[in-house]
Amino acid sequence: MGYQLELRHFTYFLAVAEELHFRKAAERLFISQPGLSRQIKQMEEIMGAALFIRNKRNVTLTAAGVYLKKEIEFIFNHIDFTIRQTSLIDKGSEGEVRIGFLGSAMQTVIPDLLVKANHAYPDIQFSLEETTNHDQVEGILKDHLDIGFVRLDRVPEGIAKKTVHMDTFSLVLPQDHELDVASFQSIDQVAGENFILFSSDYSPLYYDKIMSICEDKGFHPKVTHKSVHAQTIFRLVENKLGVAIIPTSLQHGFDMNIKFIEIPAIRQQAILSVIWKKDNRNPALKMIQPFL
């Protein structure tokens, strides 16, 4: 008797691929473990490919399984998005654009983009998610996001990148710190202070640039705290736990007992780019691309 692949096969496969444990995947799917094992075996026979390596201790994906997991995640995400877009269009909307961003983008380019897009296409909806560079790239590759605002020097093949904002860097100090705009000359004046920085996981390129700003002045900063949120960094500075270096545009929108001093005469710039998948089929994205 011949069998055909059905949607359930892919659902079962993805559960096992994510859990890497047949019992846990079966509990998640509300089916028996032997039944799940039979379905996966049937799927492997139909495809003519081994998807898992099984032994008494663990379950791992084969190379074919790793590839299939990535593709199934994309397909399922795209199906979910297509269903949501269809519902929006039926209600009179022109669809939705999903935007990922770093915090500084909300202080610079995103408000302008939304104003222009809303004026030209008032029936397009937008969803916004503040997240890391890495998660934005993954989101675009897996069809979770349509565009992202990142600080990256390279992106994977198939993703387009365009510079949208060039920013300077500023030093963040407690309000009563002895340095001010008049007395500040160089970042080496705070070489002995503790530094509070964005995590390198949040933006490796940005983290490396901060390191190079200090190293160009002959010192390696003592980093005592890291965060992925500007507000957390500013709160730590406010409580005199250290100083920080941030893109200058991030200073707006916070009311704390801190001060900002733009760092003069340095070669580093905070470059913000917009990225999107070149073969993205979302018609709403194509409408707003002239504003990017």
From TrEMBL:
It comes from the Bacteria. The keyword Transmembrane helix does not apply. Residues 5-62 form the HTH lysR-type domain. InterPro entries: LysR_HTH_N, LysR_subst-bd, WH-like_DNA-bd_sf, WH_DNA-bd_sf. Keywords: DNA-binding, Transcription, Transcription regulation. The keyword DNA-binding applies. PROSITE patterns: HTH_LYSR. This is LysR family transcriptional regulator. Belongs to the LysR transcriptional regulatory family.
